[in-house]
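S1.2 Input.
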Amino acid sequence: MCFPVGMFITSSADILLQTIEIEGLDPIEFYMSASQFEYWKYTHLTIDIVPGRGSGFSIEAPEGKRFLIRSRMLTDEEIEYFGLFKKVPL
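S1.3 Output.
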């Protein structure tokens, strides 16, 4: 679910991945738990807004829209750019 900035309580166990800017709305921060990030860190995530029913109290629920996350594995170049290559001791 997505909430306006300040409406979702985060902790040191959460990682801010991106602030989403949508015309006409306050910024939306996209967080992931640190343990979940360990699993997803080699993945490029794209957040789309599509027609459909939103989820519970999420920001998009009353608008007839929902968020859809699309993913793909990072390329070797992206992994290198983000410093995610594992260093193997010699």
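S1.4 Remarks. The chain has two helices and four strands.
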